[in-house]
Amino acid sequence: MPTSVVFTIIIRIDDYYHSWGLCMDKTIIKPPPEPEAVKKALRALYEAQGGKAKYIVFAGNKLPKYLWDHWSEEMHRAGLRWQDLLRSLSKNSEKAMAWITGEASWEELVEAIISDLAAGASREKERRGARRKIRALTDFF
Fold first, then answer.
1. E-state strands within the chain
2. Is residue 103 part of a domain?
3. How many distinct structural domains can be found in the chain?
4. Element at 75 (helix H, strand E)
5. Coil, strand, or helix at residue 103?
6. Who contacts 65 (Cβ-Cβ below 8 Å, separation ≥6)?
7. Tens digits of per-residue pLDDT, 17-26?
8. Can you give the pTM of this predicted structure?
9. 110: left (phi over 0), alpha (psi -120 to 50) or beta
10. pLDDT digits (tens, 9 = 90+) for 70-104
11. Residues 123, 117: Cα–Cα separation, whole Å
């Protein structure tokens, strides 16, 4: 499939929109397969801590690294960095904890992260556009 072809599926359910796949500068971030080994390791660590530690999501950077390994190229094309992924995961840490404990599905977690990254990509695109306009104005004068 050519990279210029972009498909985004949007489903409307009771006035709520859910986007499966993120369109960022003609690139789609697709949900990767659920990392069962990562989930098992984080769950074991969570249980060893007595079920109280929220930082487990970032333990050993297992989950962020897994997502980065799958999404880094698309994120770079959209102007997003590793720090943006960490920020998005931090904003969605409660959902990540729910996934680790089995209270939320992998799809719910990934959808929340993708939505947050899409907002970040949109902001980055606006910043780049503003920088170009400023450069054009300074070149004009």
1. 9-13, 16-20, 22-23, 28-29
2. yes
3. 1
4. helix 62-77
5. coil
6. none
7. 344 445 554 4
8. 0.71
9. alpha
10. 999 988 888 889 999 999 999 999 999 999 999 99
11. 10
